[in-house]
Each structure stands twice: as structure tokens, then as C-alpha cells.
Amino acid sequence: MIQSDLDLFGSQPQSLASQVMLLPGFALPEVEVLLDALRPVLRAAPFRHMQTPGGLHMAVALSNCGSLGWVSDARGYRYSPLDPLSGKPWPALPEVLLTLAARAASQAGFEGFVPDACLVNHYLPGTRLSLHQDRNEQDFSQPIVSISLGLPAVFLLGGMQRSDRPQHVPLSHGDVMVWGGEDRLRFHGVLPIKPGKHERMGERRINLTLRKAG
Ligand code: MD3
Ligand code: FE
């Protein structure tokens, strides 16, 4: 029997909450094209550890592409058209990311998704992301698409209250998540990345989140 691409590249979409979809392996067929597109982005806007408003430095290193990028400093969290490191606009959002994000969003029922910001998070083994809400975007009716690459992670999908006990969701290289609607403001985070070496990505996890921020 002939296997479909879905069988070769991942399992079926999984609904984690009413408007949170996990698309296992959705990005796998395009990983090499995606990594090729990411290289010049990260050359122009290297990963850096930003300061939190409280004066600590973030464990996750980050970069951005698109007309807006997420930044954090002593003045707070916000989207900015300029990379504070270079003083120049963030690199453009690569076509492969725009089309992948639109296809993933459509698969989850969000038609016509056109992101203007891609936050690129870099995790080393031991790095975690504590529970938070994403509230810096203008329009909470717009979905967010995230792409996981490299070392596996345990994603924490919480509720609308910080105190709600989170679901633990394993994420692997090539997995894509789409969330929106009533689930857009759920608390979420990432458990410390376990030590390991991914055969393609080495000792790191990279997560891309595509948003309509402005
Ligand atoms: C919210 N990044 O950058 S993907 C972030 O893996 C962030 O680097 C994480 O949270 C990361 O702000 C998680 C984002 C994500 C995925 C699914 C969600 C956030 C979600 C489902 C509901 C609410
Ligand atoms: Fe987040």
C-alpha cells in the first residue's frame, strides 16, 4: 500500500483545546528550505539575550524577522520596527515562512493569515520559558502559528488563569502549533530542555512564532 505524505512526515492534526491545533511534522518537508532562509536572517539579526523590565536577563535568546519584532528592555515588552542591536529594520520575513504559516493557519480554520512578525527563540539544554500570556499584539482575534525545530520540548498549555494546571504537550522537530480565538490568551510556557543532540540541529531548540502584531 502506498503511504501518504502525512504518514511519512507526521501523524494527524490533534486538537489540544477548542482552538489549539497541533500539526505533527507539518514543517518537516520544508525544514531545509526554512533553515536556508533563516541563515541570512540570523546573520543580520543574531540571537541575543534581552533584558526583562525587572532588570534580569532572559534565559531564551531571541531574534526577529518581519516588519515588527518583539523586544524587551527596562522600559517593558513591545513590538518595534527596528532591531535595537543594529538600529536597522529587522530582516524581511522569508516567503517560505509566510506560506507555511498561512497553510498551517488554514488547516486549523484560520483563513487568510498574513503575519508581520516572526519571533525566533533559541533554547539550549536547561533553558525554560516560564508561564506567561502573549498580550503585546494589537488584535487578539488573529491566530499565532509556532514551528518547533531541533531538540524536543515539553510545552505547557495552561488556562486563562496563571494558577490553572497546565497540560504537558511534547513537541518535536517539525511540529507546528496554531492557536487563536478563545485560546489566544491562555498562559503557556516551556519546561527546561533536556540535554541531548538533535541529528540535524545539534544541542539546541529553535521555535518560530508567526504573528500579526501590528
Ligand atoms: C499560547 N514561545 O515566544 S510557542 C513565545 O516554544 C512563546 O518558544 C514558546 O511562548 C516557544 O511567546 C511557545 C507558543 C505557543 C504555542 C501554543 C499556544 C503559545 C500558545 C497555545 C495557547 C496559548
Ligand atoms: Fe508566548
UniProtKB/TrEMBL annotation:
Record key words, sorted: Dioxygenase, Iron, Metal-binding, Oxidoreductase
Cofactor names: Fe(2+)
In short, the EC number is 1.14.11.33
- InterPro entries per UniProt: Alkb (IPR004574), AlkB-like (IPR027450), AlkB-like_sf (IPR037151), Oxoglu/Fe-dep_dioxygenase_dom (IPR005123)
The protein's superkingdom reads Bacteria
* Fe2OG dioxygenase domain mapped to chain residues: 114-214
Any GO molecular function:
broad specificity oxidative DNA demethylase activity
Q: Name one Pfam family in it.
A: 2OG-FeII_Oxy_2
- PANTHER family per UniProt: ALKYLATED DNA REPAIR PROTEIN ALKB-RELATED, NUCLEIC ACID DIOXYGENASE ALKBH1
Protein name per UniProt:
DNA oxidative demethylase AlkB
